[in-house]
Amino acid sequence: MEATISTSTGKRLAPMPRDQHWLFGSFLPVRNDLLNFYTRMFRELGDIIRFRGLPGLYWHLVLHPAYVEHVLVRNQHNYRKGKVFDGPIGLITGNGLLTSDGDFWRRQRKLMQPSFHRQALSRFAATMVAETEAYFEQWDNRARQSEAFDVAQDMALLTLNIAGLTLFSTPVGEKADAFGQNLRVAFDFVGFRMRPTLPVPLWVPTPSNLRFKAARRRLDAVVYQIIERRRKTLNPAPDLLSMLMAARDEETGEAMSDTQLRDEVITLLLAGHETTAITLTWALYVLTREPAVEARLYEEVVSVLRGASPTVEDLRRLPYTRMVIEETMRLYPPAWGLPREAIHEDEIGGYFIPGRSLVALNQFLTHRHPDFWEDPERFDPERFTPERSSGRPAFAYFPFGGGQRVCIGSQFALMEATLVLAMIVQRYRIRLVPGHPIEFDTMFTLRPKYGVRVTFERRGQ
């Protein structure tokens, strides 16, 4: 449909779908199948699309890299995460780094940044490797018995333990499975409330509200236990949790309350493992479908590591492994959509954006934009060689967001994913269980709806 002119402002409006319901607009397709609906609209209407939800609710889907850069960088001060993001995710994270804003956010970000500098990351590598090695006995036993298992679950448990140990010197250990399950309940609940719908208030005792509140109580119990143990420790480890506890307000001199600490700890546990677990899961799935990629990856890993465990110094000698991770995050971005709210009116691509309206960025579709990615559905790690990356718009690829609120843990996640993938590929061949369904679960992050059931085969045996 052609763009129209607003009768009230006289400004050019982005095109809208033809088949919106007269009352509910695009409410039903958004609620039922958001990703496929957006994909179809992108093909029909292009780089910026205006949608109507329930009466009075409008939002824009923005896909062109230049438009994404406008929102995240060039005019970033006009765009905030807004209630559509902060409200739902804040039900889990409170006022942690993911949802806080303004001066408080800047203080917290500055406080945490040293824990993610290169020198700190180098210290984390040994823990990442050791925690992965701890799974070898279990995986070897499964390989001997040709036992099928859900690798998504194992990656979630592994990365959760790594996050706990590296950031807080606390092994989640036997609680990891229950913690992960409760996070999943919370994610699904929050993901639904982020859709442009009218959610039922949390105080209403619906089954979904009750499930969420029970899951949140269990998550809180684990996090408060971590904080309580640390307060009783005489010589605490010099980790991120110690830095948070030692921090003092510049004006009042007060330390963080247990509630503030809880918000930051649960935010970092959530963000510190979810994206990496999903990336590794999709990467292992891809290797079952791409034998040429798997063969080249194995060749690089063996030639560099020669049977040994990787170290942080090996990372620069594993460029293809890193490119496999990057290409995985192109086609299967864990954070597949990024909402923003315009503070004041704006113009994007020549179209009017009203103040206080929602703007939805979408990594899944921008990463597949045919104007910037040749044969975009094909898995091709060499897209990320310096030669082929040269000249590509910066925001044709933004798996960690961008601008001042780019993910603080992006290098942590990339290092962890590269190390873990290299270790698994060096030791095992991965086979997808025949007939196992692979579908997207887009409720919050981009997860495989039914997991990824595989078998491992021990190499050299």
UniProtKB/TrEMBL annotation:
<protein>
    <submittedName>
        <fullName>Cytochrome P450</fullName>
    </submittedName>
</protein>
<comment type="similarity">
    <text>Belongs to the cytochrome P450 family.</text>
</comment>
<dbReference type="InterPro" id="IPR001128">
    <property type="entry name" value="Cyt_P450"/>
</dbReference>
<keyword id="KW-0408">Iron</keyword>
<keyword id="KW-0503">Monooxygenase</keyword>
<keyword id="KW-0349">Heme</keyword>
<keyword id="KW-0560">Oxidoreductase</keyword>
<dbReference type="Pfam" id="PF00067">
    <property type="entry name" value="p450"/>
</dbReference>
<keyword id="KW-0479">Metal-binding</keyword>
<dbReference type="InterPro" id="IPR050196">
    <property type="entry name" value="Cytochrome_P450_Monoox"/>
</dbReference>
<dbReference type="InterPro" id="IPR017972">
    <property type="entry name" value="Cyt_P450_CS"/>
</dbReference>
<dbReference type="InterPro" id="IPR002401">
    <property type="entry name" value="Cyt_P450_E_grp-I"/>
</dbReference>
<dbReference type="InterPro" id="IPR036396">
    <property type="entry name" value="Cyt_P450_sf"/>
</dbReference>
